[in-house]
Amino acid sequence: SGMVTIDPGYKNTGSCESAITFLDGEKGILRYRGYSIEDLAEKADFLEVAYLLIFGELPNKEQLDTFHNDIKEESQVDEEMKKILDGFPKSAHPMGVLSSLTSALVAFNPTSVDVSSESAMYSSIVRILAKFPVLVAWAQRKKKGLPLDYGDDTLGYVENIHKMMFKKPNQEYKKDPIVIDALDKLLILHADHEQNCSTSTVRIVGSSHAGLYASLSAGISALWGPLHGGANQAVLEMLEAIQADGGDTKKYMAKAKDKNDPFRLMGFGHRVYKNFDPRAKIIKKSADEVLGSLGIEDPILDIAKGLEKEALEDDYFVKRKLYPNVDFYSGIIYRALGIPTEMFTVMFALGRLPGWIAQWREMRLKGEPIGRPRQVYVGENLRSFVNVEKR
Ligand code: CMC
Predict the structure, then answer these.
(1) What is the DSSP letter of 231?
(2) Contact present, 266 and 370 (Cβ < 8 Å)
(3) Could you tell me the strand order of the sheet in which 35-36 lies?
(4) Would you call 209 a catalytic residue per the annotation?
(5) What percent of the chain has pLDDT over 90?
(6) Secondary structure (DSSP) of 11-42
(7) Are 141 and 338 in contact (CB under 8 A)?
(8) Residue of the nearest CA to atom 31 in ligand 1?
(9) Which of 126, 158, 178, 262 has the maximal Cβ count within 10 Å?
């Protein structure tokens, strides 16, 4: 009771205390558990970062091996899950497929709701870190019409994901360190971002004591939207549209600035970063490097750079502090790696998985109360019911 202040979009409302990710939007700083994103993207691999985010410390060699082995033990997905996947049309968006399959995992892993001990939570966490990449790979294989497959225990976590996504029948899988490095980096850069829309969704669903997988499934749905993770797909589609339009970036800039046009420059702007997005800086550099080492020349990259330059010099964008965000250049790398455009947001979800898990675990360990925002009612006062014939 008492006065309720409303804050649409929670622009100034904190929902929790958290020891996971530090973000300074003015200075463009992002740190996981105290380690700078630049340092981690350069030196760590994705599985180490997952461990760091979830458990709070970088693992030593033995802890990392145990963690990885525990994950490998759980890397099978129930065969019956394939029937669910079969039921989707090939045209289904992989994000819908992924959230549905993640939700379905609850039915096949009923103990995943058990949070009565740290070890019970650990089992659920390891299980989803093992099975989620299989679902990601299945979503891509369905799109591409490839037979479903499982992982390879002899490979690293990210190598295995890559193999599961791309391995063709009767073809030897070739490891490519450039590709694996690029994937590792992208996944690390997406791994957590404090109380963003999907993470807040995971926390709020989890706060009702729904289980981890149900909470994650809700988070995936939240991520799907074009204002959030769906922006990476939208960016690439925008760049392709500009290309098809003869590279007319000016036209799209004008559309983005026109208040009567709902079009926004996708991959630009951020709720918290008002100076630059440190992830975008790293990804831009990486896009150049990856395309260079793979010997790919993509005119879309030039269009993106041109568009960025124009926006950074434009009053509209400067005044509103709109800069390229994480989604602006990531799609260009995914595309160079042969990942279909509709899979881009799935790759974001794969990267964000450890963050969602870490935030959910932190919330449950702290025993936070159910999330239940208030409102200010602005509707009708009391009215008498009128029978349908008299309306
Ligand atoms: N293009 C054109 N104008 C924009 C853009 C854009 N991309 N982003 C913000 N604006 C304008 C907006 O119209 C508003 O103008 P005015 O003050 O004249 O009304 C002003 O800038 C402030 O925008 P806002 O919508 O109030 O800001 P927000 O914090 O609510 O939204 C955002 C942040 C990221 C949703 C928004 O910038 C946006 O829609 N960007 C495009 C989609 C995108 O790239 N999303 C990915 C975000 S980063 C990673 C992730 O979360 O997945």
Answers:
(1) H
(2) no
(3) 21-24, 29-32, 35-36
(4) no
(5) 95
(6) TT------SSEEEETTTTEEEETTEEHHHHHH
(7) no
(8) 271
(9) 158
Which of 93, 162, 193, 270 does the annotation list as catalytic?
A: 270
Q: Give per-residue pLDDT as tens, 215-266.
A: 999 999 999 999 999 999 999 999 999 999 999 999 999 999 999 999 999 9
Our answer to whether residue 327 is catalytic in this structure is: yes
* Nearest atom of ligand 1 to the alpha carbon of 235: 44
> Looking at ligand 1, which residue's alpha carbon is closest to its atom 30?
271
Residue nearest to atom 17 of ligand 1 (CA): 320
* Fold (topology level) of 231-336: Cytochrome p450-Terp; domain 2 (1.10.230)
20-227+341-366 topology per CATH: Citrate Synthase; domain 1 (1.10.580)
In the predicted model, is pLDDT for residue 2 greater than 80? Answer: no
pLDDT in tens, 120-139: 999 999 999 999 999 999 99
Supply the residue whose CA is at minimum distance from atom 22 of ligand 1: 320
Residues 191/200, Cβ–Cβ less than 8 Å: no
Mean predicted confidence (pLDDT) in 34-44? 98
* Phi, psi angle pair for 367, to nearest 5°: 65, 45
The domain locations on the chain are 20-227+341-366, 231-336
Residue 9: CB within 6 Å of ligand 1?
Answer: yes
Three-state DSSP class for 324? strand
For range 170-177, the mean pLDDT: 90
Strands 29-32, 21-24: pairing kind: antiparallel
- Is the Cβ atom of 227 under 6 angstroms away from ligand 1? yes
Query: Is the model's pLDDT at 165 over the cut of 70?
Result: yes
1 pLDDT band (50/70/90 cuts)?
low
Binding site membership of 82 for ligand 1 (Cβ less than 6 Å): no
Q: Residue 27 pLDDT more than 70?
A: yes
- The answer, yes or no, to whether any atom of ligand 1 lies below 6 A from the CB of 254, is no
CB atoms inside a 10 Å sphere around CB 18? 18
- Closest approach atom of ligand 1 to CA 316: 3
**Average pLDDT of 160-177?**
93
Q: How far is the CA of 359 from the centre of ligand 1 (A)?
A: 25
Closest Cα to atom 41 of ligand 1: 266
